[in-house]
Write a structure and sequence with these properties.
One of its GO terms (molecular function) is ATPase-coupled transmembrane transporter activity. This protein is an alpha/beta fold and 416 residues long. It contains 13 helices and 16 strands. The structure holds adenosine-5'-triphosphate.
């Protein structure tokens, strides 16, 4: 048996990972990694999960074995990742490629995965692509950086930790621009969950949730994989009908008391990595920001000069004004997330939901994103709910709501 070898490749948000993987299989990196044949290689990544979900939807069959025979798309993001991993290691491949393996996993699951990987590393070679230096698996000693020009540059393990990678932009010191027309909301309570319960097919998920989010508050929402964070958020955004018939008050109105889904949605700014991942249109950066005024992703109607000017002010705060006419798709991942948050905030909605917004961002882009969120919290009346497993070091939430998993459904508590 060939002796397994392992590599860590730091990817920043300019790195073209897809191209790297395509070239890896064609033998373009023969000297570094040897011949990597596609049939002896398995990929552990979010893109692989997306691919399997669409395969399940198209062909109506299960691509991985899951508890309770659940389809992948009905599982939480952490559960999907765990199911894919269990499937991959049933027959350990010659080469396992890990692309940001720890995103979406809670802390305990991250430690568990680290342990499993160190065991698998005795029989499979591993290439770990990661945009976070701190995520490097400790047993990997060969390190390199995937540059924007597709070159791989070797770097020592010690230098990787201290290396100062090129900095992206910083935020402008200007205040965020006010909305063209303030959105009115009665009272100070943006959301009130009062003894709310949720089950899926008789399986209790959330029990007796009592949670109030007031105007201008900045909440971190956390909990283990599968504890119900996305379910809770989907009751607010309207994707989940389970909020009806319960004591759930959104923007001063009891849910189901006559307001349309559209009326609820337009009061919420929403940023999730999947939004940018699945976004396929060709739109300029400035149009993407303006589109937040029309509640569309991408612009499909002619904006006024006032609206264009407001979007330009936002881009100035992000120090992205020179990129106004650039195609959104040509931005780095970090820049795209900043534009998405400006798009979500341009109206100053009463509520901004950020669901794992720094997933897959490199260290520097994540720090910049967090600085923008802190700034929005300080300079607006918008209430923020920020969902994340690994708390970014400089994030400054004013409150913390924790879901604690339980066989009878998760319970929630305010952490003080
Ligand atoms: N449509 C559905 N049908 C059946 N079960 C579901 C459905 N949607 C979610 N669940 C289950 O509800 C539980 C809570 O899922 P949810 O996505 O809210 O968790 P989460 O806290 O967001 O997890 P993660 O941190 O992994 O993203 C999970 O066990 C999930 O499998």
């Amino acid at each position: 048996m060939k002796q397994p070898r392992h590599w860590f490749i730091y990817t920043n948000n300019q790195s073209n990972k897809k191209r790297f993987l395509d070239q890896l299989y064609t033998g373009a990196y023969l000297e570094e990694y040897g011949q990597c044949s596609q049939d002896k290689t398995r990929l552990f990544s979010d893109s692989e999960i997306d691919r399997l979900i669409s395969e399940e939807e198209r062909h109506d069959f299960k691509t991985v074995t899951t508890p309770n025979d659940q389809p992948l798309n009905a599982m939480s993001s952490g559960e999907q990742k765990k199911a894919l991993f269990s499937e991959l290691v049933k027959h350990p491949p010659e080469l396992l490629i890990l692309d940001n393996p720890f995103t979406h996993l809670d802390m305990a699951s991250q430690s568990e995965l680290k342990q499993l990987l160190s065991e698998i590393a005795t029989q499979s070679s591993i290439i770990q692509l990661s945009s976070r230096v701190a995520d490097k698996l400790p047993f990997i000693k060969r390190c390199s950086v995937l540059q924007a020009d597709h070159q791989i540059t070797a770097i020592s393990e010690a230098d990787l930790k201290t290396h100062s990678f090129p900095k992206h932009i910083v935020l402008n010191s200007k205040n965020i621009p006010p909305p063209l027309k303030p959105m009115e909301m009665e009272g100070k309570e943006v959301i009130v969950f009062d003894a709310v319960n949720v089950s899926f097919a008789e399986r209790p998920i959330l029990q007796n949730i009592n949670w109030t989010v007031n105007k201008g508050e900045f909440w971190q929402l956390s909990g283990k994989n599968g504890s119900g964070k996305t379910t809770l958020l989907s009751m607010i955004t309207g994707e989940n009908t389970k909020g009806y018939g319960q004591n759930l008050v959104l923007f001063g109105k009891l849910k189901g008391s006559g307001e349309s889904l559209w009326e609820i949605k337009k009061q919420i700014g929403y940023v999730t990595p999947a939004m940018t991942r699945l976004f396929n249109g060709y739109h300029s950066v400035v149009n993407m920001v303006v589109s937040g005024l029309f509640d569309s992703v991408g612009l499909y109607q002619k904006p006024s000069d006032l609206q264009l000017n407001l979007a330009a002010q936002w881009l100035e705060v992000l120090n992205l004004k020179p990129l106004k006419p650039t195609n959104f798709k040509d931005l780095s991942l970090g820049q795209q997330r900043l534009v998405m948050i400006a798009r979500a905030m341009i109206k100053h909605p009463p509520l901004l939901i950020l669901d794992e917004p720094t997933a897959d961002l490199d260290d520097d882009s994540a720090a910049l994103f967090v600085a923008l969120v802190n700034k929005i919290a300080q300079e607006s009346d918008t209430a923020i709910i920020y969902v994340s497993h690994s708390l970014e070091p400089s994030l400054q939430p004013s409150h913390h709501y924790l879901l604690e998993a339980n066989a009878l459904g998760s319970t929630g508590k305010v952490v003080t």
